[in-house]
Amino acid sequence: MRQSKFFMPTLKEAPSDAVAESHKLMLRGGYIRQVTAGVYAYLPLGYRVLRKAENIIEEEMENINVPEMMMPHLLPATLWQESGRYEKYGEEMFKLKDRHGRESLLGPTHEETFTEIIAKNLKSYKQMPLALYQIQTKFRDENRPRFGLLRGREFVMLDAYSFAATREQLDEQFEDQKGAFIKIFKRAGVKVHPVIADSGTMGGKNSTEFQAPAAIGEDTIATNENGTYAANLEMAVSIDTFKQEPEDAKELNKVATPDCDSIDKLSKFLNVPATRIVKSILFIADDDKKILVLIRGDKQINEVKLGHVIDADNLREANVTDLKEITGSEKGGVGPINADWADKIIADETVKGLYNVVVGANETDYQFENANLDRDFKVDEFADIRTANEGEPDPVDHQPLKFTTSIEVGHIFKLGTYYTTNMGADFLDNNGKAKPVIMGSYGIGVTRMLSAIVEQHLNEKGGIAWPKEVAPFTIHLIQMKMNDEDQTTLAEKLEKELSAKYDVLYDDRKERPGVKFNDADLVGAPIRITIGRKANEGIVEVKRPTDEKSTEVSVDQLEEILNKELG
After folding, report:
1. How far apart are the first and last CA of the chain?
2. How confident is the model over 80-85, as a mean pLDDT?
3. For residue 288, how many other CB atoms are within 10 A of its CB?
4. What is d(CA 190, CA 179) in angstroms, rounded to the nearest whole number?
5. Which of 391, 415, 445, 472 could potentially form a cystine with 48 if both were Cys, beta carbons 3.0 to 4.6 Å apart?
6. CA distance readout (Å), 470 to 54, 524, 566
7. What is the mean pLDDT of the chain?
């Protein structure tokens, strides 16, 4: 490809509203241009990277015998109403009506559509296991689109779905997809941690995220030094090392605690450590169930974990009005003693083994001292519902947890029968009995992955060192003087020879060397070949994006160098 004919509108400076380095570079390099908030055009340079990433996905899906297909973008609302997600999904769904008043939506994901087709066409256990996938544009009405391709309203995504007759088949499919994803990210040059994750609105209970460590990441992952434990902070588990020495139960005592609406204030006022305070927080589940949640005062409740324990569609912390009406107390005064108004009391594991603690008295500005579990209050269920802290021991090797910001680039789920039960996707087993198909769901944010690659492969000059399999061009030929006959002869010869094997961009523009080299940093080809003053001697300069200086080599050495670097 001749650079004089290639559309690559570069910028000297990134727009002031671009924060992420990947966003800045892709705008400066002419990879993308914003059309409206959260919606981007992929210019030729960006589209080449996108297609190469898609090609890797297609090859790895082929390797595990998963065929590709394509679903529509415009979906009938009835499908999502049938699965129960039409209202649950929230305001991120783009909803619309046609001229006849029929409700539709722009697909944010396609579980329902695949399930409907399977329900109509897959009837026997003999047709399974089966998996299908597509690479398609998705739509989500993000409230605050930001960071370029990382959080957009329109984006490209791989979504694959598996269908099984048994749990054993699902497990095998899940591992096949997990293995394929690991290969995809490795080939694309993305360093990822497969981590334990929350399924969110997708349904199902078992899921793994693929998190790419990056400075601009919106997620936090907890890992140990050995690499034997990795989890999204929402699901991370740690070992609580605090132990209170057993002591005799003391007499329960009600005390006034004016203006102590936080653990810090209460701890200072009563001169007791936070570890001797049990924090009580009221939650409302599914609009009417009153759940009182207890946790040791030095810890924080993890609402994602709590949601899994309660298994509610909706969960929120009680507001000021709720507290007053239900408990008779304002914030800080709620407690588990005589809490007959609670439908259920759930306590974190940290509450076990505590003696003579401080709890709310269900009266504003009052607490009970010397409260004891079982004597003064009861707990219906204990569970791990706390947020793990950095430095706490992990549950596998008991090593300190390390927190890292990261970008979620992939997510795989064992959906089970969440959709097939609701949508009537049954099959006949080998005994002729009708059973719901068992599903899995597997997704990669392809455009989001591009941002992750850039974030992980920035070089010191403000450019990018693209991994060879996704680089827009694998070789960048740069001719210094276009009016030099020797340089032109050699450049055109190399262009013809190398283009037979590699993606070559030949900079044939009549521009100053500084302009050409600045643009070359933005292209980020794995190999840059500069044809300059020694062209008549058959000498060129070779440079990788990570090299400080270029190296002079003879043209005869190029084949060996390129085979070594590019394969």
Report:
1. 21
2. 92
3. 7
4. 15
5. 472
6. 9, 11, 12
7. 94
Task: Say how far apart CA 116 and CA 135 lie, in whole Å.
Answer: 19
What the block records as the tokens of 185 is 């990210």
Rounded to the nearest 5 percent, the helix, strand and coil shares of the chain are 30, 30, 40
Q: Read off the amino acid at residue 30.
A: G
Q: How far apart are CA 101 and CA 310, in angstroms?
A: 38
What is the Cα 246 distance to its own chain's centre? 44
- pLDDT category, 440, cuts 50, 70, 90? very high
Q: Cβ contacts of residue 11 below 8 Å, gap of 6+?
A: 27, 28, 30
Q: Which two tokens stand for residue 541?
A: 């300069």
Determine the 3-state secondary structure of 289 from DSSP.
Answer: strand
> Are 134 and 438 in contact, with CB atoms under 8 Å apart?
no
Q: Which residue has the tokens 């509610």?
A: 312
CB-facing half-sphere around the CA of 206: CA atoms within 13 A? 12
CA pair distance 290, 284, nearest whole angstrom:
5
The model's pTM is 0.87
* Residue 320: burial class (beta carbons within 10 Å; 0-12, 13-18, 19+): exposed
Using the predicted structure, report yes or no on whether residue 198 has a pLDDT greater than 90.
Answer: no
SS3 200: helix
Contact 524, 463 (CB under 8 A): yes
Question: Taking the alpha carbons of 451, 456, 457, 460 in that order, is the dihedral positive or negative?
Answer: positive
Residues constituting the chain: 567
Q: Which residues contact 323 (CB under 8 A, 6 or more apart)?
A: 282, 329, 330, 331, 334
Residue 395 backbone class (left: φ over 0; alpha: ψ -120 to 50; beta: rest):
alpha
Can you tell me the mean pLDDT for 118-134?
96
Tokens at 104, concatenated:
């539709």
Cα–Cα distance, 79 to 105 (Å, whole number):
10
Rounded Cα distance between 296 and 483, Å, is: 77
**Using alpha carbons only, what angle is made at residue 475 by residues 469 and 476, rounded to the nearest 5 degrees?**
135
529 vs 473: CA distance, rounded Å: 12
Can you tell me which residue has the tokens 């129960």? Answer: 84
CA distance 536 to 200: 64
Distances (CA, A) of 164 to 65, 118, 133, 279: 15, 11, 15, 45
Token pair 């200086």: residue: 549
- Find residue 241's DSSP bridge partners: none
Nearest to 524 by CA among 10, 161, 91: 10
495 close to 504: Cβ distance less than 8 angstroms: yes
Q: What is d(CA 228, CA 399) in angstroms, rounded to the nearest whole number?
A: 10
- What angle is formed at CA 106 by the lines to CA 176 and CA 425, rounded to 5 degrees? 50
CA distances to 297, 309, 334, 335 from 346, rounded to whole Å, are 15, 9, 14, 12
- Does pLDDT of 489 surpass 90? yes
